[in-house]
Amino acid sequence: MGGLELAQLRVDGWGEDTLPTLRARLAQLRRERMAVIELQVPLLDPASARMATAIEALGFVFSGVSPGVTPAQDRLVYNHVADPGFDYDAPNIHSELGQRLRAQMRAQAAASA
After folding, report:
1. Could you report the per-residue pLDDT of 75-98, keeping only the tens digit for each?
2. How many CB atoms lie within 10 A of CB 101?
3. How far apart are alpha carbons 76 and 89 in whole angstroms?
4. DSSP letter string over 10-58?
5. How many domains does the chain have?
6. What is the CATH number of the domain that holds 34?
7. How far apart are CA 40 and CA 29, in angstroms?
8. Measuring CA to CA, which residue among 42, 52, 45 is closest to residue 19?
9. Residue 34 · residue 82 · CB < 8 Å
């Protein structure tokens, strides 16, 4: 049995080419058959809030905040499940928030299928 194919993308700052670059990288990672793609964007950058709708339109779901050593390093974390056969029930999730995130990811995957 193979392991989970996970890719991570990180945006350090927003520019005119960031969204097209994300689209291209996402397409490439799908071709490489990554099961889950994590995207991290800078929490304190106002552009991250403005880009949230565009990020979600790419199929990413907000999944949390990753704290940095300093507040300037804090990241918003999004996940994209690229594997249509991904088993959402496989991970053992015990928290109510985790259960809600799983349901949101499952619903978004069904809507984009």
Report:
1. 999 999 887 777 888 888 889 988
2. 17
3. 24
4. E-SS--TTHHHHHHHHHHHHHHTT-SEEEEEEETT-HHHHHTHHHHHHT
5. 1
6. 3.40.630.30
7. 16
8. 52
9. yes
The answer to whether residue 38 is domain-embedded is yes
Q: Is residue 85 one of the residues assigned to a domain?
A: yes
User: Domain of 100?
Assistant: 6-112
Q: Are 95 and 50 in contact (CB under 8 A)?
A: no
Radius of gyration of the chain (CA): 14
Find the Cα–Cα–Cα–Cα dihedral 92, 94, 100, 101, rounded to 10°: -50
Q: Mind listing the pLDDT tens digit for each residue in 29-63?
A: 989 989 899 999 999 999 999 999 999 999 898 98
In a domain, 1, yes or no: no
